[in-house]
């Protein structure tokens, strides 16, 4: 019944850069078709809950599948599982354990914490609640920490007021002075000392990319008097940009460090709390990323030695939101583990009409370079206040899904909106609908995926995944199975955006959660046996017992360990 194709690699050429953490052994190239063995030795599917392997083994009696995914699979049918991943920003509206659980049940794959807001204690309590829910309720929600960055922004508004309203014609003072709370009336503090020197009378000052607009009318020492020209709501710590003669003034921003001293403290905190992703705000160029990544890798190594086995590196996500990043886009994406189209600030730094094309370009480039990409900000902005989205918002969400971004993100909608669960439901149902429509109508664009491998072994993996995805579409298989230690082959399959879902079995807790950001991947944790047949059979019986697959389903299995492709019916 089963057919397998094994591509056995030779050792990588010494002059090529060493591959990513690799599974290659030195063997002669050969191509063989062999019938499957049906032995059953125990491969153990274990929980993703972050326990040590020995603790995890105790919970290995069954298969720990993400409870929310399992429910979605049963509700929508196997082939219709949602492919687009969902990220929710956690804030006052969703920081309680009950609210977090509701989001996890509703399909949140990644919880984002914005370090612009809240204290470490607050963030720690959210992270621990997410971990506890994962452990107790069987979710696999990853945590993403998002740095503040050092672009110019306002301080807190002081006092109890969560926001303030600026009216047309009012004069407000923007100041770098430190005030005692509450602030004097119509006063806003600014986070960088050179502010009063840098602005000129006549400059236009935009709060949050234009939600409120001022004109600079007078400078008095550290205070800058501004006339409100476009009234609106001012939220604490909102970003500020200033424009002169129609251009963004950026001299000072270019000198600000991408990772400020506060960000480093936050990153230390994120590492200590074991977050899966660190998103770096206002990345300008690629240089900063490798130094951060190597620090994270070194720390991961240390953790592996002293804390527990199976801790993998923290992934670095570059937020594309600064005008400078667009000049260095490809290098930045290459250097990172993923990217975010942070349309909020991006739209304050480039003309708004350029944002859609820029989004499309970033999404495409990320897919070509095999990096997960998140489309973020204002997807359902009106749902902060209303229980239903505007039609235009639904169209925007649809477009991001159609572009086949890996993930969509909620910001204020989930952090401080009135309808976080409803907003998540909209993302989920629109994603499902568009994905289905596109599959049924076979509307997928054929994107040319360039070779990205940097070693012979990686080339083999890439060829295997490209072929497996193509075979899966042509044979209309029910699922792709990938057994992957580094996650690399899972991401290569995801990159092909095949028609069927991808079951990704990996052997560490953190890698499993990390895979949860990638399009179409349904990650499981499995303690691998060296024997593929064992892994397959064990997986089949456990998934069958959970009703997630059934006898006769056609699957294609690939593996990093054997570099093989097998086509088979579930026995
Ligand atoms: N941890 C938090 N505590 C309090 N309010 C929060 C928190 N996280 C988010 N918010 C609220 O939700 C709004 C939207 O969140 P979002 O993460 O998009 O932040 P932002 O401040 O707009 O900036 P950016 O996303 O560019 O860092 C914020 O402006 C803030 O009012
Ligand atoms: C998400 C974010 O940082 C932005 O849109 O600006
Ligand atoms: K941020
Ligand atoms: Mg931003």
TrEMBL record:
PROSITE patterns, sorted: PYRUVATE_KINASE
Coiled coil: none
Region (Disordered): 1-32
GO CC, alphabetical: chloroplast stroma
Localization per Swiss-Prot or TrEMBL: Plastid, Chloroplast
Family membership noted in the UniProt record: Belongs to the pyruvate kinase family.
Protein's recorded name: Pyruvate kinase
Organism: Acorus calamus (Sweet flag)
Phylogenetic placement of the source organism: Eukaryota, Viridiplantae, Streptophyta, Embryophyta, Tracheophyta
